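During the reporting period the student researcher (J.K.) took over the structure-prediction task from the postdoctoral fellow and processed the backlog of single-chain submissions. One of the processed entries is reproduced below for the supervisory committee.
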Amino acid sequence: MKTCTKCGAQMPDETKFCGACGSKFADETSQSQSGGEQESSAKFGRYFTDRTSEFDPQDVAANKTYAILACFGILFFIPLVASPQSKFARFYANQGLLLLIFSVVFGIAVNIIYAVFSFLGVIFILFWLIGALVSGLLWIVPFAMFIVLLVNAIGGKAIEIPIIGKYTLIR
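J.K. obtained the following structure tokens:
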């Protein structure tokens, strides 16, 4: 049986395209396997690690909704309560918790930066405008991490969020 690298679906060996997502399977002659084993996680650039192959495709399909809910801040605990035995659900609960903690710490840091620029804005109004612009632009970072996490959860992929996703708080 072949496993689709995009969605994790199991297909017969003679299949050329995935029946679930339509992606093309690579030729066996072009695949490089050492001793029949493939690396368990693929790296995308330096910030993304795909761990989808570590999870059972049936576990992914059954717990995708919980993974999506875990992306929304405080809802990270729902997969832990609703599906405590699912490795995929625990992966997304961990990613959601990491993003929540990062967002809170990041928010405190951005507010400190804004406060400093606002204080300087009393002296010169341009500093207040710079502080507002900088603090607003900085919020793109956690928002982008949220979007990456959510898109991957919807797609049934287990790709760690950049920079902080490699840490494990929930096993």
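The committee noted the following: Confidence is low (pLDDT under 50) at residues 28-41.
J.K. will present the remaining backlog at the next meeting.
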